[in-house]
């Protein structure tokens, strides 16, 4: 399996081959394409020449002019949290090229598209904030690989959580799989594995009751609806989903973004958190009032499916069918 880190510009023949491959128009029937921007280090996944998503693997600098015109009384807060960051998805694109996620927001500058992070990472009795980028950061190791099937392409990338940017405490592997769309829309499957490299590491939401886990900061949506469903605890199987729907700014037609959790996720189904004014929604992890201990011998694995479904919001029957399809997919 090829490693992007080996694509060295000094290899003239390979560079020429890559340039030719990028200029060619992918076949409609082929798998999505994964490519890396040599200048930024970011990864893009496209499908038949159409962008699907970007994974910002390397550090992303503060945009020029970000602080211009902002209220003076907010600048201390903004400068503390508006710092270079990496390891997140943005943009996620709709079928017409509309950006569905938001980045570098003036209200919460640390919000960054779709990212997996916790505001309370405790290590040896002290607390860092991976969510707001304080004391602990996910740093790329450069270990990446790709693979593909007939109708999907996948990127796997490694990061290490660095305490005070010095001590590695967690090895993280993020796997992003993009499927070709069908009549149902498009699937994007996310798998995250977290392995403790040190003892005494716990994860928690803000004050153990607010946000944390898979964080989804959305672009503005007209006629937005944020909805959540979970079957009663006695139901077998217990079906749950979370959904944002409406017409995204700049789009011509409505769209729904649905999140399905894998039933093997610890504590399934997750607590639901949403902030419509931002807008923001998420399956929060772990459950309110708890802290999750990372152990060296037992990696934490969290799996999700994003389902991008064009048109009006799907009905209950379709949602249940798609939930079942995901649970049966048994992706490795």
Describe this structure in words.
- The protein is mainly β.
- The chain has one domain (52-329).
- 11% of the residues lie in helices and 42% in strands.
- It has three helices and 20 strands.
- It has helices at 12-23, 72-81, 316-329, and strands at residues 33-36, 43-47, 50-56, 88-92, 114-117, 120-123, 126-128, 136-148, 152-163, 167-179, 186-196, 201-204, 213-217, 221-230, 240-248, 255-261, 271-275, 280-284, 292-294, 300-310.
- The strands form four sheets. The chain has an eight-stranded antiparallel β-sheet with strand order 8-9-10-11-20-16-15-14, with helices on one face. It has a four-stranded antiparallel β-sheet with strand order 1-2-3-4, with no helix packed on it.
- A hairpin with a 6-residue loop joins strand 10 and strand 11.
- The longest helix has 14 residues, at 316-329.
- The two termini are 15 Å apart.
- The model is unreliable at 1-28 (pLDDT under 50).
List keywords for this structure.
332 residues; single chain; 3 helices; globular; mainly beta
Output the strand order for the largest sheet: 8-9-10-11-20-16-15-14
What's the rounded overall pLDDT mean? 91
- N-C termini distance: 15 Å
What low-confidence regions span 5 or more consecutive residues with pLDDT below 50? 1-28
Rounded to the nearest angstrom, the radius of gyration is 20 Å
Count of domains: 1
Class by alpha and beta content: mainly beta
Treating each run of at least 4 consecutive H or I residues as one helix, how many helices?
Answer: 3
| Assembly classification | single chain
Tell me what portion of residues adopts beta-strand conformation.
Answer: 35-45%
Fraction in helix: 10-25%
Secondary-structure element series = HEEEHEEEEEEEEEEEEEEEEEH
The largest pleated sheet is described as: 8 strands, antiparallel
Shape: globular
Number of strands: 20
